[in-house]
Please model this.
Amino acid sequence: MDRKKELKIVYRPLEVSDLKLRTQWQNNPAISKNLGWQIRKGTTLKEAKKWFESYVNNENDKRYIIEVNGKPVGIVGLTDINPVDKNAMLYIIIGEDKYRGRGLGRKACEYIINFGFSKLKLHKIYLEVNSYNENAFRLYNKLGFVEEGRLKEQIKHDGKYYDEIYMGLFDTKNR
Ligand SMILES: CC(C)(COP(=O)(O)OP(=O)(O)OC[C@H]1O[C@@H](n2cnc3c(N)ncnc32)[C@H](O)[C@@H]1OP(=O)(O)O)[C@@H](O)C(=O)NCCC(=O)NCCS
Model:
């Protein structure tokens, strides 16, 4: 199978019925190790449902399920959308193991960056990445994100401390 062959991708808003799968993805150690401590501590469906109640009424948080041939395989979104300073934080998980490393993360990031800059007219999109998450760091570099700074030894992973890297991408047209 050609792992980079063209995938039919649809992005649709996150729904309450997606939370079960999302919780499974978040509790997969291959995924959670790369995320924030709130996910690394472990998450439950009950917590997710409680979170969703505030999420649906939050205009500053937009998350989309990535579907390939009608099957949910991940989530991409912009959180902490700040309409005053025109920035937001990028969030992405390719949840299904066999869909990682096939170009989907890159396409989904391009989709959400375009949404942020063209539709929301943001000036900046930023993100946080754990320093040992080399695949994500490489992807963000390829997308044009530039390292802005590091919180030193902010993340404890496998008994060692690692930096948390902040990266940013600008659309200079949106002032
Ligand atoms: C990080 C993540 C979003 C990347 O998505 P992906 O679909 O796996 O990545 P892609 O196939 O689009 O690859 C894009 C680029 O990332 C890098 N990359 C991704 N997977 C890689 C791998 N297994 N080995 C080496 N490089 C890799 C490459 O630079 C690649 O560019 P290329 O295709 O030109 O070689 C995805 O792996 C994921 O969800 N990981 C778990 C959760 C996570 O880390 N989220 C981000 C938190 S900051």
Remarks:
- The pocket of coenzyme A is lined by residues 31, 34-35, 92-94, 100-106, 129, 133, 135-136, 138-139, 142 (CB under 6 Å).
- The domain at 9-126 is CATH 3.40.630.30 (Aminopeptidase).
